[in-house]
Amino acid sequence: MELAKYMRGRVTVLALEGELDSATSGEARKRISELVPSDGAALLDLGGMTYMSSAGLRVLLLVYRQVRQLGVPLALARLNPDVAEVMTGTGFIDFFTVVDSVDDGVEALSG
Question: Signal peptide: which range, if any (predicted)?
């Protein structure tokens, strides 16, 4: 699993690529937690995610709890259909603002 961080105005974009599963979730959780801003907004770009297991869902839930505690708005962008299906089936999708593109996410979080 790869993780890249870049800024779009006040929005911290964290782009995840690869598989988020039991083998990668511990390190992913640690790195995402360190990169989540304490102010501004956060956007998780999941367009490069090829697979997400229940361990990956747990990572997203923990990130969601972290940003809520910090008062930082969070959105998810570019969910591939398989990941979206898993999140919808478990009800996790309802916790997040979900957008089609990074540009849409930046706009939603900036407005």
Answer: none
